[in-house]
Amino acid sequence: MDTAPLHLLIAEDEAAHVEAIRRAFEGAGTKVDIRAVATLREYRACLAERPPDLALVDLNLPDGRAVEILTQPPEDAAFPVLVMTAFGNQQVVVEVMKAGALDYIVKSPETFVAMPHTVESVLREWKLLQKHQQMEETLRISEEQFRAMFEVASIGIAQANPQTGQWVRVNQKMCAITGYSAAELLQMKFRELTHPDDRQKDWDLFQQVVRGEAPDYRMEKRYLRKDGAVAWVNVNMTVIRDAAGQPTRTMATIEDITVRKQAEDQLRDSRRQLGETLTELLQTQQQVIQQESLRVLGQMAAGMAHDFNNALSPILGFSELLLDHPEKLVDQERVARSLQIINTCAQDASSVVRRLREFSRKRGRGDILQAIDLPGLVRQAIELTQPRWKDQAQAAGLTIHIATDLRKVPPIGGEEFAIRELLTNLIFNAVDALPVGGTITLGTATDGDFVRLWVSDTGTGMTGEVRQRCLEPFFTTKGMKGTGLGLSMVHGIVQRHGGTVEIASELGHGTTVSIRLPLRLPETETALAQESALARKLRVLVVDDEPLLRDVAEACLTDDGHTVETVATGVAALARLQAGRFDVVITDKAMPEMNGEQLAVAINQGAPGLPVILMSGFGDMMKAAGEMPPHIRVILSKPFTRSTLRAALAKVVPPQLPDKR
Q: DSSP secondary-structure letter at 522?
């Protein structure tokens, strides 16, 4: 591709010199566009039309000297100027160079011939000069911009000597943060600002960063201000290095975060105080709930004591008659009738204890998603609360009737204990709303994908304001007689089961609480164990420190055809296991020296795989809580019956395979 010709302006009144220069460029093969003038006036006119790439100006022209047109330094000129003179001396050199010429040449045939090379060198030098000038200008502008930003920045900026850590440059914001003047800071080392507790650690880290052993550090630290106050700052420091990688200076930005740290401290204190307040509230709430549970439990216990005494009276009466009159034992029909009454009353007494225990036990994992027969649970709740709505009411001269409308509904999935507690609270609330007696109605029905449960009373009813607030915790209209937790507990239980609560009430016309619970069954249900006697006969070791319980267990097992041995302690049980072979061990939980759980561990060490059944008066509670001690196969609740004992054996002993011969 052709290059553009060199535009050359020559101011020379000797035409021969101009021609010699032209021939030199032609001989060198350089493309050149030469304009020649003989006076300064013509030179100026050409410049007005178009500046050249380079100008050759004779020192002395007819209308003046070249220095008259050289009025600016060459680095500021638009093009380079070479001054030509017939003779040169030091004075001329100084004069033309000060006037703005880039260089000068002494006119001679040799210099004219070398003019293309000279011009090329001058142009190259001029371009380098211009580039240098541009770099200096850019650096000057950058420095001015940096200085402006440095001084007006909203964060502190400082430079320090990487070897000594002494400040070498700081801005006004840095002074504001520290309380020192710029002159004072420049006499200090950076670690002198750091809190005394952190100075050595800060200096060690600074040296590691300078040596390149640690990355530049985004650090929160404490500055000690001139007035002695502590200022929290966020420091970001980087090391500036030369081409050889040696540190030349450090640059740091310092942000005052004192207000933020104070806010964080206040927020932390607020959270701590809130946590303490919440803990106190939860403790208070737990105490109130416990008081409410104890109050309800006390009311139920009083009635259950009545039921328990009613159950014990026939047992004591008929057993005393049989013991006092042995001659009556010959009347088998009468004896059988007496024993049946004793057995029935004992079952009733056991049921009273079990119901009380079921009511008082805490919710456990085993309660979740049990298959619940809601109408059956309603009947149980009515029976549980009978001492309150019947016996105590009658003692106060009141008559309260319980009516039911229990339609058949599918089982629901939920926490049986929680639903029982819900029903108990609703019945007690209804009783409290009947100060002169009345009727309480409980009903169940299917409602789409839900089961509806309702409790109605013909009592005093509620105002609109009370109805709106009755589900709030601690809201009560009973004064010191109530805690305000009954309906709120009901609401919480229903919400936990994914249901809803609706309350319809009118002052003087009673109240109806309607609850909708989803038809949600457990994913799996445990099949009932067989209660019939096993066809396979077993060798059973019974361990219990109570002789009567050993006798009862032995009698039941022996009557089913099993071979039974009994011992009173865990140590004795281990000795019998070493002396003979057994198919199953039935052990009490609470025994002296070695309890049933410890015995199961010891049995597993000596006879792995030997099934162990654990008997306990707290068996139902252990099952509900999901407790299963190590190496225990089945938990058998006390008091056990023949059927529950058979069911426990069926769970641990596989059925006997049929003979294929």
A: -
